[in-house]
Amino acid sequence: MSITVRRPIHHYSPTREIRWRRRSILGIILLVSAVLQGAGAGAGILFHFRPDLVLIAVVCWSLREGPRGGWWAGAAGGILSDLFSAGILGANALSLAAAGWLAALASRSLYRGHLSTRILMVAFAALVSGAIYYLLLVLFRSPPAWPDAWRRILWPRLWQTTLISPLWLIPVDRLLGGRR
Amino acid sequence: MRRIVVAVAVALAFIVLFSFTPALSSLLRINLLQLLGPVQELGDTLFTPVGSLVRVVGRTIEAARVNPVLEERAGFLAAEVARLREVEEENRRLRALLGLKEREERRGVVARVIGRDIQHWNQSVLIDRGGADGVAREAAVVSAEGLVGKVIEVAPRLSRVLLIIDPGSGVGGVIQGSRQTGIVEGTPDGGCLMKYLPRRAEISPGETVVTSGLGGVYPPGLLIGTVTAVRPEKDGIYQNADLEPAARFDRLEWVMVLE
Fold first, then answer.
1. Sequence spans of domains, chain A
2. Chain A residues in contact with B4 (beta carbon < 8 A)
3. Which of B11, B47, B167 sits opposite A94 (nearest CB)?
4. A66 burial type by CB count under 10 A (0-12 exposed, 13-18 middle, 19+ buried)
5. Fold of A18-175
6. What ipTM was predicted for this assembly?
7. What is the pLDDT of residues B144-186, one digit of tens each?
8. A6 CA to chain B: closest CA distance, Å?
């Protein structure tokens, strides 16, 4: 007597469902981050204070999901940033994807559960993404001189994003389902 | 690792494509963004009351500080207005004598600013009017205070305006007093710099800069800003002037897209 076991083609997987639910939440968080950034400054509240909320969400995801997840979250967040910005289309996608990937790699030997590690990684990712964006500007457009770019763009973005990161990391972490 | 290299190569290929086809990337970006338009408007609607509250507090504090100075200036300005009315009248008579056409009143589309550029690298705003409302690419945009920028991307119900404080922006300007012309460019810190002014030209802080009309994008006579400092170029034949833009970019709410 032989027994044939047939594997169903589409079987229900709770892990898969949870993964997709989390990805959808990340998508909403990235969209809300981009809209908040644009609308907040548009309302004249924070004209010179422009923290990168999208970057914070990307770092939060990359520390949970690892380099590959960080890369794709960065690419998705970067595409949104590209839509809400007048720069080179795709430049933010590449710089944020690389920042998400590198942040996950750099934090491998660190205790990622602690808030200070996450803040440190946000600062690292802001630095990396800013440097890559500058490099892309050198390749495809005429960027401002490096000292000017550092003093007036990269440094303000770095400290503003790092300063606001605890306020954005905690709710994003909660929405994504607590620490992993 | 191999996948990452492939992904970087694909991303770079797209960036090369988009940077060499700005019209395509503009079209793609603004039309995709229009799909997110309702979300953007919602965000703006939620933030507007908070922004208004912050502004009211800020303005009250500022008003208490500048009120005595303004009262003193109002007296001087009343005399100046009377003198300018005389000049205007004289100008009208002389124009009639020379047979020149009266300057047309500027018309345009009034739009609300619904979002700002989210990156530090660029200075642009989104407005809630587009091609269906008569907004055209390259149209000049002004606020009540002065020149704001030009339209660079147009969707049916949404447009993006490149501000004059963007480092990639260039406006032909003329200093009202000395009639020296130059190019006004944005600076990375959100200010303006007037370049290519002859080194020997006598320019002093406080002078007003308006659009020259050269280049064809901006009509002549739009207020750009005021000279705050003049610096000669190192080893160059030109000098540069720092400008304080007339438009308040931190309080930009309503603008007019000129026809």
1. 18-175
2. 71, 101
3. B11
4. middle
5. Arp2/3 complex 21 kDa subunit ARPC3 (1.10.1760)
6. 0.78
7. 888 999 999 999 989 999 999 998 889 999 998 788 899 999 9
8. 33
